[in-house]
Amino acid sequence: MSGALRTHARMATVAFATVVMAACSREIPEVGQLQPFYVPPAENVEIYALRSGDTFGEVLWPVMTANEQASFLMAFREHASPRRMRQGTEITLRYLRDDDSLRGVDVALTPDQTVRLSRDALGWSADLIRTPIYVDTIFASGEIEDVLWNAVVHNPALQTMTFADRNSLIDHLDRVFQWQVDFSRQIRVGDTYRFAFEREVRPDGSMRAGRLLAAELVNQRKPFHAVYFDPNGDGRGSYFDLEGESVRRAFLLRPLAYRYISSRFTSGRFHPILQRWRAHRGVDYAADSGTEIMATADGVIIERGWDNSYGNTVRIRHSNGWITRYAHLSGFRGGQSVGTRVLQGDIIGYVGMTGLATGPHLHYEMLQSGQFKDPLSVDLPSGDPVPSEDRMRWQEERNVRVALLESIPEAGPVRTVLAEAQTAESAGDGPVSSGGQQ
User: Fold this and answer.
1) So what's the pLDDT on residue 421?
2) Going by C-beta distance under 8 Å and a sequence separation of 6 or more, which residues neighbour residue 356?
3) What is the pLDDT of residues 22-55, one digit of tens each?
């Protein structure tokens, strides 16, 4: 490079450095803060909630002509019937702001479905809009200080959920553990629980659906576990313990959801109506009239009708000589009759006080080969374990879901029968039962 070019390059470099330094030394100017301003909405909205006796037409008459109504209702009927709209249904009328003309109507059929009607050149058209959801997983753990319901509903980790959804979590736990622990009589102060729960959430924070991925319940120092596994991938999976044994039993522990026992199985009980001592060969569950009653096992209905002091009664025959009886019903489930096959958990009737009953309750009996059995102490056989061909995949999924439980802060490793026995032995509290009903 010639001397003249080198001199020019040095001068250019010095000039560039001077400009950069000068720019860096300047203070960055402040743009300032804009004052907030109001932007009017693009449309005006009116919301109506149908009251008892209201009709869809009464909402529409002030805003459209009879001819428009005919086109409107024709479009609406593509997705729903205007005659079957329930009390409380929200109807949103949307108007153009500039000329105040009706541009659309939204009808919320359910929390998950809305019919959106729009005006077009030919009249009205309708689309069925499904409420969007997102999927998340929530975690919770706690110790029972009085009752399980309070422990779950008031758990700080769940306070962002609606009250109804928190209450639903208890139902999920109850349905999963119903074969191992009777929540209405076996839960004790000091018992602990934890779970990982996957849910579908709407924009308003309410839950569309959910499923327990894994759960642990330690009842009177005995740990119970339930891990979801779907070997067929069809959404109809089941729950298994840590060894891959089914948590399901041939019979449910009780035919009602989470109710308390008002009278137990006994050879001598003073009957409040007959005013004499007599055997009580079943268990009475106190519940509100109309509460749903479930078949406790697969079987065939062999009696369905009035049975003297039992009132409205259903009897079901099961395999291996078992028969169950459900008495004092207020009514029966429609579509069933003698000879109908029912599955475990199917609704067969509703709690009442027909026959010799002083209040609404369900009288439940179990017989095997004609002999009465105490439903609270009978040894119930278990369901099928994880299929052998799916064992490896089960172990992988179990490990992942157990890790979810152990990731809950301060929850620690899952509790096993062996670990609980060692803890009890070191504390001098005696052995921990390894099986059987508490």
Assistant:
1) 53
2) 271, 273, 274, 309, 311
3) 555 566 666 667 777 677 777 788 999 998 888 8
Please report the beta strands in 171-291, taking only residues with DSSP state E, as ranges in sequence order.
Answer: 192-201, 207-219, 222-229, 238-240, 260-263, 266-270, 277-280, 283-286
Question: For residue 102, which of 88, 92, 112 has the smallest C-alpha distance?
Answer: 92
Pairing assessment for the beta strands 322-332 and 266-270 based on DSSP bridges: unpaired
Is the pTM higher than 0.70? no
Using H for helix, E for strand and C for coil, what is the string for 14-42? HHHHHHHHHHHHCCCCCCCCCCCCCCCCC
Residue 370 burial (10 A CB sphere; 0-12, 13-18, 19+)? exposed
Domains 43-130 and 133-248+382-432 share a fold: yes
Q: Which of 320, 416, 332 is nearest to 368 (CA)?
A: 320
In the numeric block, the tokens 């009205």 are attached to: 124
DSSP summary character for residue 424: H
Give per-residue pLDDT as tens, 105-120.
Answer: 999 999 999 999 998 8
Share of the chain above pLDDT 70, in %: 84
- The β-bridge partners of 152 are none
Sheet of 43-49, strand order: 43-49, 90-96, 102-110, 113-120, 123-130
Query: Which architecture characterizes domain 133-248+382-432 according to CATH?
Result: Roll (3.10)
List Cα–Cα distances, 117 to 74, 77, 132, 135, 228, in angstroms. 11, 11, 18, 29, 41
The alpha carbons of the chain give a radius of gyration, in whole angstroms, of 33
- Classify each residue of 307-332 as buried b or exposed e, where b means 16 or more C-beta atoms within 10 Å of its C-beta: beebbbbbbbebeeebbbbbbbbbeb
Buried b (16+ CB within 10 A) or exposed e, 69-89: bebbbebbeebbeeeebeeeb
Sheet holding 238-240, edge to edge: 134-143, 192-201, 207-219, 222-229, 238-240
Count of C-beta atoms within a 10 Å radius of residue 236:
8
CATH class of 43-130: alpha beta
Tallying the residues shown for the chain, one arrives at 438
Domain boundaries, the chain: 43-130, 133-248+382-432, 260-373
The fold of 260-373 is Glucose Permease (Domain IIA) (2.70.70)
Question: How much is the pLDDT for 434?
Answer: 43
